[in-house]
Design goal:
This protein is mainly α and 191 residues long. The protein is 71% helix and 0% strand. The protein is built from 12 helices and no strands. The protein is globular and about 45 Å long.
């Protein structure tokens, strides 16, 4: 696992094929680290490998795959580059839409956020549902991903500062602080 993680600090042209092999490892822990490391490369070549793992047998791997696709897409868009060709984007959007419609609540949130980062707002409501979920873990995932939707980001985090769950309030306050917003200062002081 440590060796796989270290590949993220090497030349992406050399690391990505090796990480692709790690994505096929029998051990979920290795696949999970490979997915996270592929996201850290912020390289277009990582998208195809990650897209092929959206249906991994392990939920944690799938969550990290979705998060990493979003990271790479966001990074490339911020540089004015396209994250993938039209064919790959269409194929990936189809897989993400399916995951947003059929995955568990956490996967629905992650898939919706990834689609938003790719410019597709067709499943935006899944991210909103995650922010309103009864399950604090789903809410925390949605909080971490709400920046994918600037409009929702402006209002939802402040609302969650009054959530019944201390963990949700804390996560919302941390996210606000990371964005340079002081709205959650009182929650952070209280912990």
């Amino acid at each position: 696992e440590a060796a796989v993680a270290m590949l993220g600090d090497t030349d992406p042209q050399k690391a990505i094929p090796l990480l692709g092999q790690a994505m096929k490892d029998q051990r979920a822990e290795v696949r999970k680290v490979a997915a996270v490391t592929l996201g850290r490369t912020k390289n277009r070549g990582a998208i195809a490998l990650l897209g092929g793992a959206i249906t991994d047998s392990n939920r944690e791997v799938r969550i990290d795959v979705l998060r990493s696709i979003g990271k790479v897409s966001t990074h490339l868009k911020s540089k004015g580059e396209t994250a993938m060709d039209a064919g790959t984007q269409a194929e990936l959007a189809k897989a993400l839409t399916s995951r947003a419609d059929t995955g568990d609540a956490g996967e629905q949130v992650m898939a919706a956020a990834t689609l938003l980062r790719m410019g597709d707002d067709s499943r935006r409501d899944k991210l909103k549902q995650g922010l309103a979920a009864d399950d604090p873990e789903v809410k925390k995932l949605a909080i971490a991903e709400v920046s994918a939707d600037p409009e929702l980001n402006k209002t939802a985090l402040t609302t969650l500062l009054a959530d019944p769950s201390a963990a949700v309030r804390f996560r919302a306050a941390c996210e606000l602080a990371e964005q340079g917003r002081g709205d959650g200062k009182d929650v952070l002081k209280a912990t």
